[in-house]
Amino acid sequence: MTLIIAHGLPKSGSTFLFQVAKDVAASINGFPYNKAKTRFFPGMDIPGYVHQPADSIIEPLLRLLPPKASFVLKTHGRMTPLIASGIQSGSIKALVSFRDPRDAVVSMLDAGISDREKGKERGFSLLYKADDALKPLKNGWGMARDWAFFPGVLAIPYLLTATNQDCVIRLICTHLRAGHCVNEIRQRYAEDKAAKITEFHKGVADRFLEALTPEDIVRVTQSLESEIAESDALTARWMRAYGFGALFQDMHDRRQSRLDGLTGSRKPADPGELTIPVAPPSGDGRPASRGVAAEGKYTQRR
Question: What burial letters (b/e) apply to 168-185, b meaning 16+ CB within 10 Å?
Fold first, then answer.
């Protein structure tokens, strides 16, 4: 029995992780994801996504899930002691995605434009400019970082998802001990990715360099300094671990060469020099608070 939890910084490719995990679960169970809800949890209203996976949701899933079966839940919420314990015991397998916070800001603003055009009332619909996105971004990073730093969680940088979906599929299947379905799932996403991968959209790293004004790049970079440093260090660590260190370094160096003329500040440390602390959740599972977001100005570009 395995409860699979797909997490991620909003707009960092977490939906792709969720999709692939559902494909794996369907292969393990022998029937589609939606049927698993009614077969495993009859009479219960089990959502695919929960903002915060409370114990009142996790406990019955762990209790009722049959032996050798799998079920997938997506969240952007915080790590809890119950989930941490489940990961350590092996009853829960977790995946987490993350990306450069500046790119996440741009994608959140793009989602806001799209949601307003479609009449959707999600949190993104309230975001009009960069400073609107800074607080939710900081909150989202505070959640995602605890998962990304927790031992046993599969960490997937957005850069890898954007450039090599096949590798991400292999990593997820291996993490979930389902190597037998790698090729089947790869074929499913081999063509027309934009249509098949929910919310895939651009699939490009460092979009903020083109989407934000130079002034806003400076302000957002200064406001999100600690989050950017952690994201860079995590991305460097895992891209190197997965065999794509050269790709990351090339991207990092090209990005930094463009930023040097904009920020007017000292060049940040190379990601390889940064120390990454392991940050398990506190007693109530909440991440440490971050600083107040600085004001920014975003010019919407469709």
Answer: bbbbbbebbebeebbeeb
Q: What is the pTM of this model?
A: 0.84
pLDDT in tens, 257-271: 989 877 655 455 566
Strands 70-75 and 92-98: unpaired
For domain 2-273, is the CATH number 3.30.1760?
no
Compute the mean pLDDT over every residue in the chain, rounded to the nearest whole number.
86
CA-based nearest residue to 232, from 219, 218, 249, 217:
249
Question: Which of 289, 281, 287, 288 has its CA nearest to residue 81?
Answer: 281
Q: Look at the block and give the residue holding tokens 């314990």.
A: 85
* Alpha-carbon span 170 to 181, nearest angstrom: 9
Q: What is the pLDDT of residues 1-17, one digit of tens each?
A: 799 999 999 999 999 99
